[in-house]
Amino acid sequence: MRTPDLVVCGAGPAGRALAHRALHRGLAVTVVDPAPHRRWTATYAAWLADLPGWLDAAVVAAKVDQPVAWGTRRHELPWMYAVLDTPLLQQSLDITGAQVISDRATEVGPHSVTLASGAVLTGERVIDARGLARAPERAEQTAYGVIVDERRAAALEPLFMDWRADNGADPDAPRSFLYAVPRGDGSMLLEETCLAGRPALDSAELRARLLHRMRSRGIDLDGDEPVERVRFPLEGGRPGRRRVGAAGGYLHPATGYSVAAALTAADAVAAGESGWPLSGRAVHSLRSAGLRALLALPPNDIPLFFDAFFTLHPHAQRTYLSGRTDLPGTAAAMTQLFAALPMRLRRTLATSVLRR
To answer: Is the full-model pTM beyond 0.85?
Structure first.
């Protein structure tokens, strides 16, 4: 049997996108995953401009023009936000033609993979796309959401994040925000999100906050709504040639977004290029410092922090929120944000970053 050109460990969005683009290039591909045919159920979204041109346009289920963010006041974001059709995304990343092995990769080297069954696979290249394991020392993002008929939530405008304090939480407790987006099928996702925590808020607390927030806005949930739960590490990814997706540092450490980055990098990685130029590694380090800053902020100051961020020039906001390689732009955005914050927040953030 021919040695595969590429072995991809993990069949989530990052691994499947890489395998799909490698097959498009005519490579012999093997995909290893414990449950390679499991259905994806999470709601994925991205800035529309961040999606690669090769992606089937039908995968975009809903577009939000100028989504809204709230700190202590309302901000309109001047970019198109895209909510993806998750089943269609999975289907469009077709891996027909790949050898698919239902097993778990336990040891991943540059040219070989040891499986839980004891088998050893070899390939010209091996890429780790298994995601990140949870660990107590790693900050996490958590969320609890429900899917409702959009007519029931007609009074809600699409919300990228809403930090207003109407979710019943104690003012000194860790903060969470409301995320509300249309899903393109007549339904809307309403999700209470802990952006970053070590430890992060648990599902029960987020559920209680979401129910309280919805009641305060005149939306009664009956408990029969489909539920979406989110929990994943924000730390632990290691940029490098042999890893993609969250395992390879593609996850934005201060927002949790990773799907668009993985899709965009898939062609280059399939071609054998590095997904991480030196500028990208430096950007990743800066954004990791941004995560440490968020974790250090007192709960009551988080809305003020985002008020300052969303009053930056739109180019600075976009540079920080998307892309992975613009080092001057990312540094400039962080410098501008630091200057826009009250002095007491500057001291907190400087201490958190320098301590590292």
So the answer is: yes
